Amino acid sequence: MLPAESGSVGLVVPRDFTYDQSFSFKSGQTLPGFTLRFETYGELNETCDNAILICHALSGDHHCAGRHTPEDRKSGWWDNLIGPGKAVDTNRFFVICSNCLGGCSGSTGPSSTNPTTEQPYGTQFPFVTIHDMVRAQKLLMDHLGVRTLHAVIGGSMGGMQAMLWAILYPSFVRRLLAMATTAREGAQAIAFNEVGRQAIMQDPAWNKGDYTQEGGPRVGLAIARMMAHITYLSDASMDRKFGRRKKAQAANGDAYTFDMQFEVESYLRYQGESFINRFDANSYLYITRALDQFDLGHAYGSLEAAFAPVKAETLVVGFTSDWLFPPEQNRNIALALLRAGKSASYAELSTDLGHDSFLLESEELYALVRGFLERTHEPIVDFSI
Amino acid sequence: MLPAESGSVGLVVPRDFTYDQSFSFKSGQTLPGFTLRFETYGELNETCDNAILICHALSGDHHCAGRHTPEDRKSGWWDNLIGPGKAVDTNRFFVICSNCLGGCSGSTGPSSTNPTTEQPYGTQFPFVTIHDMVRAQKLLMDHLGVRTLHAVIGGSMGGMQAMLWAILYPSFVRRLLAMATTAREGAQAIAFNEVGRQAIMQDPAWNKGDYTQEGGPRVGLAIARMMAHITYLSDASMDRKFGRRKKAQAANGDAYTFDMQFEVESYLRYQGESFINRFDANSYLYITRALDQFDLGHAYGSLEAAFAPVKAETLVVGFTSDWLFPPEQNRNIALALLRAGKSASYAELSTDLGHDSFLLESEELYALVRGFLERTHEPIVDFSI
Question: Are A190 and B265 inside 8 Å of each other by CB?
């Protein structure tokens, strides 16, 4: 690895942006205001046009680079991509990432206190859509003085947000980079989301969404996460990582047990248990429902119509082993952009790491991102009027 | 469809075979005896060599053809393949299918009464393996007077049993037809099994396996089944069957709800709810664990060593859209048989129906099965001694 790749943004402090006016959701419901927790890395330049917005996936948050304390074992979730000298170079760009509206890592969501009742919103929280998440992010951009986005970048649900950014604010977004995503949540993805929701909602501790943060449907949420985690990986990567290796006690002791026997079982249980300590079950319901609702073609009549306003340069990246949002679904985004007369590139990376490929270390991906961010933007002039 | 294809075995009556001697499991545990529920179609010929054994998958049972009553809405699970004039022609063959040992459709399993306690075995039932299932089936064959099997046929877990039949009783099995299966349960398949088991075992109603048939972990079992059902289908088939179509009430009413909104959600909930009325949660734990344990190469040192005793003609069928036991895993079985010096063919069928492709109507599959069963068996002579 080149020395330039090794830079870290260092210690970062999350901040809160509070919007204190009424905010209307697509559902018609409203909040008297909301807070978005966010982090920034690098400096906004004088012309306020070097900002890059990072959009996170279902279980992600605003902490995508650096560390909060020197003792942190892990850095932010996209630290390999973002930092001084990295593909998203914080020496040049002002990078912003916010926890999504409806989330549970500091932004207003179902676990936030409803000022009317002094209790958590629970299922009284408005239904949130990807559209609502993006509109809330736009208010944060305005607050930060960002005048234009050099790029919006996101994978998975973050890719959905990035696409909507380019559709809703075409003059604001100069580059759109969407990875491992889809323009339309398909039946299989909805089905997995529904099983996760059922695991949560059928847990008696869910109590129709009315629980304390210490209580709550911990069992159901862990089951949902264990299952979802499998969909982020691939058969090949799981076999390489775990194969049929057994836990030490199982290898030496009784092979006939329902207790943890294989390493992959232990890994999954760890994933489930660590998730329940950082994620709110109601947020999981809301955000998976937001994913289910996402269907750009239906919302705008056709995918070409959806992309008609886009002015951004566009790069879509699919990963061969991603079976949650497979390559075809990513390729189809680029094709629809092309049919709509837009600048669009599609790159397909051969990985065997599954959906999470967009998060993993890949010089090939870094080079694509770097090249895309260097690309000179020629604004698309619309001659059709 | 040709008229000859339309034959049905008609009304069938399941029977019970009771073995009243001590039976030792691979785990070292024993039962004082056991019962297998089974069905037969067609007649055993005078030379007792026209029998075909059908082995069922995880959630299957002995009822693979015909109907139990004229009112039955559904016929047996492989009725499209088995019957007079069909690919497995009951005019020629004596077809047998038994519910597996450890099952819950009439064969002895965890829901059976433990004669010592007069209570259901629950988790006191011996750990069962595919090996145990096959040995129990062999006792049934002996009881029925079957002297040789024209063929053993199975898909998924049934394919595992079929392979072990040819390994354990090489002189008894003349043809082995395994479909949509694997010689080695991989990490992803173990992972899905483990999530299902956790959903069951974390349901308070599981009560460490000690529950009445009316009670039990119905919620956990339904969650496990919903998830597993997704793995039996494919993204493409789910999208074709359900797409993003909404339930009538959701289409007309409130689009913002955690209640059933998409047809695929309704379908999955139906799958979960109908399963809990026919399947025992402890059986689900035992049989998924039997799947996890299955690794022929490890059990025999290598896959070639495992297949060394085989004398059967062999056909392995993989399905392109099967992502639970993908084509490669099926192809690898045939390749290992070839390396072991055996007669082995591999056919890969292009379907988009996923793992369950082996169950679905396919003239291409019928023709392969028919041709394989017609194939004259040339016994393999071992010149190595």
Answer: yes
